[in-house]
TrEMBL record:
Pfam families: E_motif, PPR, PPR_2. Belongs to the PPR family. PCMP-E subfamily. PROSITE patterns: PPR. It comes from Artemisia annua. This is Pentatricopeptide repeat-containing protein. InterPro entries: E_motif (IPR046848), PPR_At4g14850-like_plant (IPR046960), PPR_rpt (IPR002885), TPR-like_helical_dom_sf (IPR011990). The lineage of its organism: Eukaryota, Viridiplantae, Streptophyta, Embryophyta, Tracheophyta. One of its GO terms (molecular function) is RNA binding.
Length: 524
């Protein structure tokens, strides 16, 4: 073009942004200013949405202030509020909002949604109330943002009030609002109400179906989630990456692998095999199912590997006993531009635990905060303590526990009691058992270990008192269960019992087999 005006530049910048080429979009913005073309409010709005860090956003903010349009332009002001709140700088967002010459509903929505996403859910609800007092009419995005904030803090009372307002205003039929309402009830442990809204709406929309599928999976109702997915396909609702990722995660937790293979075929058919979120879910599914080689193939074929994918692969290596591979993957991750997070460190420490790599594990644990910026959590401490106890180093394990603010948790108590409870010092065993009984009141382990310790030392009166305590507290053995998926059917087995259709037939068949074996003199 012989002449390019601001509209031409905006169109190209927006085009690159829409197609995911953010670097080229920002480069065009800089080139535009170098050519002497003055950016418009729409230019700044696009570029602010592309800011990868708050520092980049602040640089654009400075440029806007030099142009004198920051407080006079609603579009630019809204973009600044959204940008600051996205990175958790809510006070900066409020400063922009208060100083704007004019605000609209989008300004309020940006502020309310930003407060909710940054962990200030109560503030989001307060701003919603202020918005209504100032005679601004909320729209479907406002209602959705407030319902999401209520879901985050599980405030069912306020959530139901907002839902009533949405019904009065006629917003519940909107897919954004209805999906937020379904999610809110699910987070508040009212999944039946989520189902009620879903059935009454009878709206087969991608966002609504995703919310319902997510609600079922979060409440361990994986088969219900698969049923909704199957019905949505019959209604010609095209699944997106969120749908597929959520369902694949179901398979990795509870459902038979055959469902996962079918979903993998659908992923390839729909062209999502290169999506980082979907690929990470596939890696996790195959890793948890024991098909680690399949997980490796998917991982190394990925064009873009985000931290979630690296974490899935590191944990998958660990759970499949390939601890050396897990450590190597961690070293490969450190050579990229990505920084490890708490989940990464959990996977690496678990690898050190499973592989008995005590020195490496301690070195990583002691340097994780200074070297990688990850503060040790209860999970990290527990893993290291388990590693030390397995190595027979109880004193070192206790030193680590005393240095950490989290203290003894239930799993640590179980580890200590299982390893040292019977043969260890009785006073120490009693203290740990008492701590476990406080944390897990219905756990049988502290009473079993204490009983064996008293019996080994001939403390019969203490044993009698212990049994009386168990009787008074109604402590009973919990029956464990296991399950296996065969040909799309799930068989659940309890101890000394088979729970599924035809369970008695299984035992009858086994008795007949035993009779035939005895008849053929295979066993005496």
């Amino acid at each position: 073009m012989p002449q390019r005006d601001v509209v031409s530049w905006n169109t190209m910048i927006s085009g690159y942004s829409i197609n995911g080429d953010e670097d080229r979009a920002v480069g065009l913005f800089e080139e535009m200013q170098g050519c002497g073309v003055r950016p418009s409010e729409y230019t700044y709005s696009i570029v602010l949405s592309l800011a990868r860090t708050v520092r980049c956003g602040m640089e654009v903010h400075c440029s806007v202030m030099k142009r004198g349009m920051v407080y006079g332009s609603v579009i630019v002001g809204n973009s600044l509020i959204d940008m600051y709140c996205k990175y958790g700088f809510v006070d900066y967002g409020f400063s922009v909002f208060v100083n704007m010459e004019e605000v609209d509903v989008i300004s309020w929505n940006s502020l309310i949604a930003g407060c909710g996403k940054s962990g200030y859910e109560d503030m989001a609800f307060e701003q919603f109330c202020v918005m209504r007092r100032m005679k601004y009419e909320p729209d479907e995005f406002t209602i959705s943002a407030v319902l999401t904030a209520c879901a985050s803090v599980q405030d069912l009372v306020k959530g139901e009030q907002v839902l009533c307002l949405s019904i009065k205003s006629g917003f519940l039929s909107n897919a954004i609002v209805s999906s937020a309402a379904i999610n809110m009830f699910s987070k508040c442990e009212r999944v039946n109400d989520s189902v009620t809204i879903f059935k009454e709406l009878d709206m087969w929309d991608s966002a609504v179906c995703n919310s319902m599928i997510s609600s079922f999976t979060n409440h361990r109702l994986e088969e219900n989630a698969m049923q909704i997915f199957t019905r949505s396909l019959r209604k010609n609702v095209r699944p997106d990456e969120f749908t597929l990722s959520c369902l694949i995660s179901c398979v990795s937790v509870f459902l038979p692998l055959v469902y996962g293979i079918e979903l993998h075929c659908l992923v390839v058919k729909l062209g999502f095999e290169h999506d980082p979120v979907v690929s990470s879910s596939l890696v996790e599914m195959y890793s948890k199912s024991g098909f680690f080689d399949a997980a490796k193939i998917i991982f190394y074929k990925m064009d873009i590997k985000d931290l979630i994918c690296w974490n899935s692969m590191i944990l998958g290596s660990t759970y499949n006993g390939r601890t050396v591979d897990s450590i190597k993957l961690f070293e490969d991750l450190l050579r990229t531009s990505l920084l490890p997070d708490a989940i990464t460190m959990t996977g690496v420490l678990l690898a050190c635990d499973h592989g008995r790599l005590i020195n490496e594990g301690l070195s990583i644990f002691n340097s994780m905060e200074n070297k990688y910026g990850v503060k040790p959590t209860d999970s990290h401490v527990t893993t290291v303590v388990e590693m030390m106890i397995k190595a027979g180093k109880l004193n070192e394990a206790m030193n680590i526990i005393t240095r950490m603010p989290c203290g003894l948790n239930a799993y640590m108590c179980e580890l200590i009691l299982s390893a040292y409870g019977v043969q260890g010092e009785l006073t120490f065993t009693e203290q740990v058992a008492e701590r476990l009984a406080e944390l897990e009141p219905m756990s049988l382990l502290p009473y079993i270990i204490l009983g064996k310790a008293y019996e080994a030392r001939g403390r019969w009166e203490s044993l009698a008192r212990l049994k009386k305590v168990m009787k008074d507290r109604n402590i009973k053995k919990v029956t464990g269960c296991s399950w296996i998926g065969v040909n799309s059917s799930l068989f659940v087995y309890k101890e000394n019992e088979v729970i599924h259709h035809g369970g008695e037939d299984v035992y009858s068949t086994l008795r007949l087999l035993m009779h035939d074996i005895e008849g053929e003199d295979y066993i005496s």
